[in-house]
Amino acid sequence: MDAINIETPYEPVIGLEVHCQLLTESKTFSPDSAEFGAAPNQHVDPVSLGLPGTLPVLNSRVVEFAVRLGLATNCQITACSLLARKHYFYPDLPKGYQISQFESPICVAGYLDIGAERRIRITRIHIEEDAGKSLHDQDPTSTLLDYNRCGVPLLEIVSEPDLRSGAEANLYTQKVRQLVRYLEISDGNMEEGSLRCDANVSVRPRETQALGTKTEIKNMNSFRHVERAIDHEVRRQIALLKRGIPVTHETRLWDDASGETRSMRSKEEAHDYRYFPDPDLPPILVTEAAKAAIMAGMPRLPAVRHSHYVQEFQLPEYDASVLTEERPVADYFEQAVEELGCSESDAPLPVQAKMLSNFIMGDVLRTCKEDGIEVANFPVQPGRLAQLAQLRIESTISSSGAQLLFEAMLSDDRAPGVIAKERNLMQVSDRSALEPIVDRVLEEHPKQVAMYLEGKRSIVGFFIGQVMRRFDGSPDPKLVRTLLIEGLSFRNHE
Questions:
Q1: CA-CA distances (angstroms) from residue 24 to 28, 74, 191, 281?
Q2: Nearest 5°: phi and psi at 125?
Q3: What is the C-alpha to C-alpha distance for residues 263 and 211, in angstroms, rounded to an integer?
């Protein structure tokens, strides 16, 4: 299909339901392990299987994580919320119901900004347990069931239908992932199912308020799939309406290979979930004191850090976005800034911050990617990077010398200054040491001196190269240039 035409008389209306798997050690209502990656049916227990006589007990960490996310997304935290049974029958749901929240979710009426002028409202965030997993591709004649995931805790983040394109949905989902990783409540790995997204998509004539018939898209396990699936579904619905064919209220699956959505089931055939409060679980109570304690333990969020980097450190927007994308990177950067600020550096804070930003974006992150390591485990600690930055700010080492020194620091934990001296990387800024070599170079190249005096100023680069090659060490290029121009000017007046 063709790309979406922004001049079309129809407007996309999109709401997302993002399921976030939590990083708890145990399951939502039982002490069984919630670890990902075990062999099938290794993490099962009587409670998650719903065996007779078992009673669920709510994991307190699930409540704490829900409140964290609610506070981070500007939600109201419900003082008393209820857990409910959601009934449906499917092979990977052994109890015949899923414990979730319905009429009384733990977080309501929040929002998440995805740009300077785009605020996406959040209807609710609620707690629920995950179902198992049906495997259809192991044996063409049967379906296999893995119950490891039964009972693993989830938070479902439900947005209002405020999104208007696949690109916005992609960005919103990335913002959710960034938040849950900052809060350390989920790894946000879409490929492993830690973050799953369903989209409710409809279109309506522009300048109208009534919602069109929506479809739900499932099976999107990457940000790219979210954007492609939604944009395809918008085009599909617009094409139907232009031909006078009504949109069917249904659930559709995204097929990335074909680049299309396909019908899964009609919503008219959907189950009546028959929600009712779970009789075995008491209400969830969140006191003001508990909420305050959770708030006190919250990290500084990416939007706050981004604003601080731009306004206080005067970093470009791009730098601030890269540095705040992942919490460990932002933590590393801020520790390095603090270390450099505590040194004897006289450079203004924006100069210090920009120098560190350049090293982190250009060297630290590149090395982490190439070597497959996390910033938290990077061999050059923030304090040592600050020392390297200080050497560069003072022009004690050159740009190329800084690169050589950085590479050496990866396997040598001594102070950068010590390594630089040992490897002869320190720039020589002593005029008396450089002047004899400058004079000798000019004396040995009278032809090039004449060319300079005749107006060919670019030949200064030739002289600089000659001085650098003859000097045993790393002379300061700026001082070398200054001395050369002084020497050439003197010859011009002879």
A1: 8, 23, 19, 19
A2: -130, 125
A3: 21
pTM equals 0.82
- Structure token pair of residue 59: 């994991």
Q: Which two tokens stand for residue 177?
A: 């992932």
Tokens representing residue 112 in the block: 């998440």
Q: Strand, coil or helix: what is 179?
A: helix
User: Residue 21 forms beta bridges with which residues?
Assistant: 154
pLDDT at 5 over 70: no
Q: Which of 380, 403, 383 is nearest to 392 (CA)?
A: 403
For the chain, the C-alpha Rg in angstroms (whole number) is 31
Question: Under a CB-based contact definition with an 8 Å cutoff, are residues 43 and 34 in contact?
Answer: yes
d(CA 94, CA 50): 7
CA distance 52 to 153: 22
Query: Of 187, 180, 151, 184, which is closest to residue 34 (Cα–Cα)?
Result: 151
Q: Phi/psi class of residue 259: alpha, beta or left (left: φ > 0; alpha: ψ in -120 to 50)?
A: left
Task: In whole angstroms, give the CA distance from residue 180 to residue 19.
Answer: 11
Question: Strands 84-87, 276-277: parallel, antiparallel or unpaired by DSSP?
Answer: antiparallel
Element (H, E) at 354: helix 349-359
Residues 127/28, Cβ–Cβ less than 8 Å: yes
List all residues 6 or more positions away from 224 whose beta carbon is below 8 Å from its beta carbon.
170
pLDDT (tens digit per residue) in 220-237: 888 999 999 999 999 999
Q: How many CB atoms lie within 10 A of CB 121?
A: 14
Write the burial class of residue 412 (CB in 10 Å: 0-12 exposed, 13-18 middle, 19+ buried): middle
For residue 18, what are the β-bridge partners? 157, 197
Whether the per-residue pLDDT at 183 is higher than 60: the answer is yes
Distance between terminal CA atoms of the chain?
77
pLDDT of residue 2: 45
